[in-house]
Task: inverse folding
């Protein structure tokens, strides 16, 4: 009985090792190529979202630092690929993709929070309009008072004519 | 003494100036602050980050390899908005076509930098492009030089670049080409920006 248990354990261990072998030994050129292509797409999406967040008025400086890190990871993945180090290429591409996806999500949130350009400008626009109308009203009232005062003074200073 | 019409003009002028002052922030927000002439810059500096001592003569040892040379790369964003830049590095023989203001070099990209910059930001610090050569063979019988391998920033690239002796300038000439690409949101890809810099390299044998 113990003999069978040992055989079963041996088979289980061999199966586990074989199933994990590709991950340990490395990946194919196709895996690496697909990983790099996916990372490139993610990086593009992240940039487009960051660009949108900037248009919406968000401060994207921190996101750009992260984007540059992701860009370096992608370059390193391509370098590893050109050196036929496909495992490293896949790892670097995955690191790039994970970072780029996180940046894309953060940038999208920032864009939504910032709102569109018009909604940001609207309070300033309305404030400027109200201020202008108030100024016109004050000036008109001042003008009317000044005109009446000035005409009255002119009439009072009219020289008397004696015959 | 002014008459009433002159005072009226003064009131109107004060009113107009006031309206402009009240509306200025809103107009500025709507128009934004775009630069008058948006552009990107690409530059290469020699060792010491100066515009001198660019690598030119590449000494090839008897083993067919060279020491490392390097230059500094720089990009400046003056577009008024964030930009995704690609910097492609290519290696040419002197008869290969150079890029133009509209078309990139058809040769394959050996190495690509990816840089993201805000408006007014420069990418300069410690961005070295380090390169060296291996498997370089000078053939006296064919009067040519063959470069079989190039290393860029530690990455190796197999090449088969053969150039003939240039009688006019006396050398085996190659060019290290750097192209600037910018992200085009219409086609969702990096597209050639029309800016490039090429460095002439002369392979010289020390043996």
Result:
């Amino acid at each position: 009985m113990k003999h069978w248990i040992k055989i079963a354990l041996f088979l289980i261990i061999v199966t586990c090792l074989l199933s994990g072998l590709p991950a340990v030994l490395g990946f194919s050129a196709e895996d690496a190529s697909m990983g790099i292509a996916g990372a490139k797409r993610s990086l593009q999406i992240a940039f487009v979202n960051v660009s949108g967040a900037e248009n919406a008025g968000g401060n994207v400086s921190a996101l750009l630092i992260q984007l540059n890190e992701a860009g370096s990871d992608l370059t390193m993945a391509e370098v590893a690929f050109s050196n036929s180090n496909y495992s490293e290429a896949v790892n670097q591409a995955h690191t790039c993709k994970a970072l780029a996806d996180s940046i894309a999500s953060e940038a999208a949130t920032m864009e939504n929070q910032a709102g569109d350009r018009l909604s940001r400008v609207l309070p300033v626009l309305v404030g400027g309009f109200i201020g202008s109308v108030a100024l016109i009203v004050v000036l008109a009232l001042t003008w009317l008072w000044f005109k009446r005062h000035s005409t009255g003074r002119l009439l009072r200073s009219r020289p008397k004519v004696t015959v | 003494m002014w008459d009433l019409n002159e005072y009226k003009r003064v009131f109107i002028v004060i009113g107009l100036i006031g309206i402009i002052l009240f509306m200025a922030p809103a107009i500025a927000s709507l128009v934004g602050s775009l630069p008058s002439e948006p552009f990107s810059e690409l530059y290469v500096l020699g060792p010491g980050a100066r515009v001198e001592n660019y690598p030119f003569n590449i000494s090839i040892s008897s083993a067919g390899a060279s020491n490392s040379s390097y230059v500094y790369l720089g990009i400046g964003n003056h577009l008024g908005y964030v930009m995704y830049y690609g910097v492609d590095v290519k290696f040419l023989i002197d008869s290969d076509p150079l890029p133009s203001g509209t078309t990139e070099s058809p040769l394959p990209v050996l190495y690509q930098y990816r840089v993201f910059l805000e408006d007014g930001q420069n990418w300069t610090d410690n961005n070295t492009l380090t390169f060296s050569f291996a498997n370089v063979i000078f053939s006296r019988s064919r009067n040519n030089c063959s470069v079989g391998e190039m290393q860029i920033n530690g990455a190796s690239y197999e090449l088969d670049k053969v150039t003939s002796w240039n009688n006019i300038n006396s050398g085996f000439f190659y060019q290290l080409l750097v192209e600037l690409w910018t992200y085009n949101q219409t086609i969702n890809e990096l597209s050639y920006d029309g800016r490039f810099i090429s460095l002439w390299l002369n392979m010289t044998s020390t043996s």
User: Anything to note?
Assistant: Chain A has a mean pLDDT of 85. The radius of gyration of chain A is 37 Å.
